[in-house]
Specification:
Layout: H1 6-14, H2 16-27, H3 31-39, E1 52-56, H4 68-78, E2 82-85, H5 90-99, E3 104-108, E4 113-117, E5 123-125, H6 126-142, E6 149-153, H7 157-168, E7 172-176, H8 180-188, E8 193-195, H9 198-204, E9 207-210, E10 228-230, H10 240-246, E11 250-251, H11 256-267
Parallel strand pairs: 1-2, 1-3, 6-7, 6-9, 7-8, 9-10, 10-11
Antiparallel strand pairs: 3-4, 4-5
The structure holds N~6~-L-lysyl-L-lysine (2YG) and magnesium ion.
Length: about 270
């Protein structure tokens, strides 16, 4: 799992509106609508506006990422939540959040990023939420995934969660995963995936889902005007030249879609 940098989160806090504009152009959905469409179909009214949400910095392991909790709060405020970063980190921060009647508490250590609903005790994990959000974005951008060829890169926690959702939506999933054990594990649980080489996958698939921590191995010559890439993987597999060709069809940012889906899911 990639550990975000201060630059990653600061860049997102600064260009959240720009990212959402591009997302809306390609999918017809803003962050709120995208999140809603992952929790229920047709969307139920989830009371995001005015919801009291606390982000608690966690100092364990490699410690606090400067700007991480601020970025989570920036995303939550972006769709109207009454969100704040607690003054204290760790357990004191969780206590502070409860004392201030937070409805939802966001916190992350080096291993997990979760949202806790203080009312019903629901705990939402970022990995499946991020997978859901990005598969939904790819589906909206492609006008449906049924019997479409989709190239899935990586079968880590987000990639595996995405594989299940892509198959469930009727996509024909081709997968590139160099780790044989991970590949076999996914096939053993009955996921209908077709292992391919990167070259074979790129030759056949216009729809690409990058859930890898590897950077810059897909270049401009590998993509076209009909390629759409959902890229929760940090950093992106696409070179700067490829990203220029794709423009907003390169759906990529470090936290916004994950946090939006986590929040909607925590409140449903
Ligand atoms: O509270 C803090 O500032 C730190 N304890 C946060 C540590 C987060 C580590 N995890 C990551 O950087 C990412 N895996 C978070 C999820 C990003 C993908 N959607
Ligand atoms: Mg990547």
């Amino acid at each position: 799992m990639t550990r975000l940098t201060t630059d990653d989160v600061k860049a997102l806090s600064d260009r959240l509106g720009e990212f959402e504009a591009g997302l809306r152009d390609i999918t017809g959905l803003g962050l709120r609508e995208l999140a809603m469409s992952t929790v229920a179909h047709p969307p139920v009214c989830v009371p995001l506006y005015g919801a009291r949400v606390a982000a608690v910095p966690v100092t364990s392991g490699e410690g606090v990422i400067d700007g991480f909790s601020d970025c989570v709060v920036a995303i939550l405020r972006h769709f109207g939540c009454d969100a704040w970063v607690t003054a204290q980190p760790d357990v004191r921060g969780i206590q502070e959040a409860y004392d201030a009647a937070a409805e939802v508490v966001f916190l992350a250590d080096d291993h997990r990023f979760i949202a806790l609903n203080t009312g019903n005790g629901r705990c939402v994990d970022d990995d499946p939420a991020t997978a859901d959000g990005y598969v939904t974005a790819l589906e909206a951008a492609a006008g449906g995934l049924f019997s479409r060829d989709v190239l899935l890169l990586g079968l880590g926690p987000v990639g595996r969660a995405a594989a299940r959702r892509l198959v469930r939506r009727g996509a024909k999933v081709e997968v590139v995963e160099p780790d044989q054990a991970r590949l076999q594990a996914a096939l053993d649980i009955g996921l209908k995936l077709r292992p391919v080489t990167l070259a074979e996958g790129l030759a056949r698939c216009e729809l690409i889902f990058d859930a890898t921590p590897s950077a810059g191995f897909i270049d401009a010559g590998d993509v076209s005007s009909s390629t759409v890439a959902a890229v929760p993987g940090m950093p992106s597999a696409f070179t700067a030249a490829a990203q220029d060709v794709l423009g907003a069809r390169h759906i990529h940012e470090p936290l916004a879609i994950g946090v939006a889906v986590m929040m909607a899911r925590a409140l449903v």
